[in-house]
UniProtKB/TrEMBL annotation:
This is Entericidin EcnA/B family protein. It comes from Sphingomonas tabacisoli.
């Protein structure tokens, strides 16, 4: 029973970390796209 609990906790933790990295990466992509769009509008 203890092994199953530890295994479940490890899997849940791994998914949480992977999710955070994905959201962080998406945020950086949106920020970059926003900057490029702003520069294009301002003629830079």
């Amino acid at each position: 029973m203890v092994r199953k609990t530890i295994a479940l906790a490890l899997v849940a933790g791994s998914l949480l970390v992977a999710g955070c990295n994905t959201v962080s990466g998406a945020g950086k992509d949106l920020q970059s796209a926003s900057k490029e769009t702003k520069d294009a509008i301002n003629g830079k």
